[in-house]
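seq:
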Amino acid sequence: MATSPAAVVTPHHHQQERLANDGKDKSITLSELSLHNKPDDLWISIHGKIYDVTAWSHVHPGGSIPLLNLAGQDVTDAFLAFHPPSASARLRDFFTGYFLKDYSVSQVSKDYRRLVAEFSKSGLFEQKGHGTMVSLTCIAMLFVMSVCGVLFCEGTLVHLLCGAGMGFLWIQSGWIGHDSGHYNVMSGRGYNRFTQILTGNCLAGISIGWWKWNHNAHHIACNSLDFDPDLQHMPLFVVSTKFFGSIVSQFYERTLSFDKVARFLVSYQHLTFYPVMCFARINLFAQSFVLLLSKRKVPNRGQEILGLLVFWIWYPFLVSFLPNWGERIMFVVASFAVTGIQHIQFCLNHFSSSVYVGPPKGNDWFEKQTAGTLNIACSPSMDWFHGGLQFQVEHHLFPRLPRCQLRRVSPFVKELCKKHQLPYNCASFWKANVLTIGTLRTAALQARDLVNPIPKNLVWEAVNTHG
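struct:
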C-alpha cells in the first residue's frame, strides 16, 4: 500500500521530499492535512497550497496561538482578514510543494473574499483619517488637565473631576491600543510601536504585548467557550451553562473549575456585573504583569516592563499629592469607574451572542464571526464614544480596516449577511445592556440549582429574560 504524502513528509524534511517526489502526485487531502496540527508539526493551507509554518509560528508577529488554533486546516479567510496583500510574498518561503486535493470554497467565502479584494482595491485599508491624532490630542489635554487640577487646585470636586478625566484618558488610550494592535495607526512601525508603549504601558499601565496576545486569540476563536479568553471570567462570570462542567481553557492551559465559590459568585453575576466592571482594570494590571513575568516568549519584554514601571511611578506619585486619603481613594475609584464604561462595552459585543465549544474552523470564518458578535446602533455623532466597537461585526470580519471606515462598509456586510441568511446582530446601547444582563441572569438562575431540576416557572423566567 502506498504511503500518503502527509504521512511521510515532516516539517524538517519537506524540501528533500519535494525533490524526491518530482513527477509524482503532490496533493494531500484535508484529513491528511489535519494530522499536521501540533506545535512541532504545523501545516496550514492558503488558497489550496500547503505551507509548513512550524518554525515561523515562534516568530509570527500575531503570536503562535492563532496558528496553533487553526493548524491542519485551510485558513484562507483568516489569512486574508489579518494580512495585507504584501504578506503573500512571504508564503513562498514556507511552501511544501503540496496542494490540497479536496480544496473547495463556499459561496459565502467567495463573496467575503470579493469584499476584501474590493476594499483593498479602493484603498480603504490605507485611508486611516485623522482619528489617531485627535485621540492623542485628547489624551494630552486630559493628562495636563488632570495633573494640573491635582497639583494646583484644592477643591474636592475638582479632584473628583480630575479622577474622572484620568478615566476618560485611559478609555482613549484603549482605543488607540486596540487599533494599533490591528494596523499601523502612525506613519511607520517604529512610530506605531512608540505610540503603543506610550499610551498603553506608560499612561494606562496595560501591556500592549498582553493585549495583542489576548486579543488575537479572541479574534481567531470568537466566542469559543474554551478557546476565547474574552469569555473566560470564572469564577466571576459565565455566559453559558456549559461552564458548569469545568471547561478546560485552551488559552490559559488550565481547568476553569466551577466549584462552590464559583457557583456562589455566578449565582449573583447579573447583580455584580456593573460593580465588578468599575474595577475590572485591576485584572488588566495583574494580567499584564503575569504575562511579562512568565516564561512565555514576549517580544520586546524590556520595553514592556519599562513602560509599566513608568506608569507605576507617575500615577501613585500624582495621587500622593492629594491632601488626604479620602480624596486619594476618591480619585482612584473615579478613574477606575469611568474606565469601567469601556470594559462594559467590550462585554456588550459578545456576552449575549452565540457561543460554541471547540477550536475555531477555517471553513466557516464568516459565519462564526457574524454569529459571535453584536453591533451597537448609534448615530455618527456617537462614534467617538464607542471607539469602533459599535461596528463589531465589520471589525471582526475586517480587523485591519481603520475605525473611520467601518460605517462605510457596513451596508455591504449587511447585504452579504442577508444574501446568505446569516445573522447581522445589532441593538441599541440600552438594549445591548439588557441582553447582556439577561444572559448573565439566565446562567445565574440555573447555577443556583444544579442538583434538582429547575422548576417550570423558573425555566420560563430564565428563557424570557431575553425578551
